[in-house]
Design goal:
114 residues; alpha+beta; six-stranded antiparallel beta sheet; 2 helices
Length: 114
């Protein structure tokens, strides 16, 4: 685990994972218009990016959002969030399941973060 390191030239540096949250499956009916494969990326700590012209339901986003900050960090081997990657939208009719995947790492100067 490398939560933080210090370099004389640049000060403290934090290393985080970039994430992709994608629709893994829809076991009900998709009322919001999302379909399997739809996704958004979370990069550079806080920047969301969606493919042009594709929606991502705000309620599905809200259900996975509390976990993303933890998934961006190195977690202990025994931590349940290190093992689990599936999250559910709260709409009981849709039964939409999202997968959170780590897509790479970014190094950020901690002085640039809030």
């Amino acid at each position: 685990m490398e939560p933080e390191s210090t370099s004389p030239e640049s000060g403290a540096v934090t290393e985080l994972y970039n994430l992709r949250v994608s629709v893994d499956r829809v076991d009900g009916r998709s009322v919001c218009g999302m379909r399997v494969g739809d996704y958004f990326d979370l990069v550079n700590s806080s920047q969301l990016s969606l493919p042009a012209g594709r929606p991502f339901c705000v309620y599905a986003l809200a259900s996975v959002l509390p976990f993303l900050a933890a998934k961006q960090r190195c977690l202990p081997d025994g931590d349940w969030l290190e093992r689990d990657s599936l999250f559910s939208c709260p709409d009981p009719e849709e039964r939409l399941i999202m997968r959170v995947q780590r897509t790479g790492r970014c190094r950020l100067n901690t002085e640039d973060l809030t």
